[in-house]
Write a structure and sequence with these properties.
The chain has about 120 residues and is of the alpha/beta class. The protein has 2 helices and 8 strands, in the order βαββββαβββ. InterPro entries: Anthracycline_SecMetBiosynth (IPR052164), Glyas_Bleomycin-R_OHBP_Dase (IPR029068), Glyas_Fos-R_dOase_dom (IPR004360), VOC_core (IPR037523).
Length: about 120
């Protein structure tokens, strides 16, 4: 099996605890604090051997709404996920829309100010 070309991401956050609460509720997955030596972060659960990454509170990077658009799978729960976006301090920028044969997406600002996409088939 060939490895994914994209293998990991670090998503910068201002408040790790707030971001964990946001992503846990929106993605419907439990996300927990992880520590390695002095480095504290939160790994987003990986589905079916796919790409994953972490939430990281660091002064080296800042959240952004004008850079790469990272897609998160919400696997059949897009409407539910969008409800949780606003409940958890985020903002819906582009409502649910069909993206051809690739399913549906919505674009949101997370609780930290990162622009992300939520995707479902």
């Amino acid at each position: 099996m060939k490895a994914n070309t994209v293998c990991w991401f670090d998503l910068p956050v201002i408040s790790l605890n707030r971001a964990i609460k946001f992503y846990s509720n929106v993605l419907g997955e439990e996300i927990e604090v992880t520590k390695y030596d002095d480095f504290v972060f939160a790994v987003i659960p990986c589905k079916d051997g796919g790409v994953t990454g972490c939430l990281v509170e660091t002064s080296e990077m800042r959240p952004s709404n004008d850079g790469i658009l990272l897609y998160f799978s919400v696997d059949g729960r897009l409407d539910d996920a969008l409800e949780n976006v606003t409940k958890q301090g985020g903002k819906v920028l582009v409502e649910k829309e069909q993206i051809g044969p690739w399913g549906y997406r919505a674009i949101v600002l997370d609780s930290e100010g990162n622009k992300i996409a939520l995707h479902t088939n």
